[in-house]
Design goal:
Layout (H helix, E strand, L loop, with lengths): L1 H4 L1 H8 L12 H8 L3 H31 L4 E2 L12 H6 L6 H6 L15 H11 L11 H9 L6 E2 L3
Antiparallel strand pairs: 1-2
Amino acid sequence: MGWLCYNDYIIAKCGESSNVPELKVQWFYRFLHSTYFWHPSALAVLLYHYGGFPYLAWGLIAFVVQSVGHIWGERTWNTRDTSTNNRWTGMFALGEGWHNNHHAFPNSARHGLEWWQFDLTWELIKFLELVRLATDVKLPTEAEKKRMKTLLRAPSTNQAK
């Protein structure tokens, strides 16, 4: 939920939402904006109610990946967003913490693109491919990786204050 609480960082990195002025006049989006903190709280209650602690943990891990993955970490690829790779989230979330890799190559089945980037989800996908339960598994090509590296250089790391 960090992106909810750390709005100044996102505004500093991305600017105000001046590209969508029509959203500020629609009642539904004004309602969402004024009650934004209650939505994940309600989701947590629902997840716990319907699935117990495992569902709640799953929901919290998803929030951690989104929060940490856009604030703290290293930027390997030149994406047009604030996504980062965070090794602690990568291990904790079974590979989903390599968020900058995911944003750079959204069609890739593998988020941990380097040998040292732990990605248990990728290991599961490889197994499913081996037993023919997963097909047409996609990975970024070397040409795609080179193209992402040669775009305008973004800052190498994001450090929140």
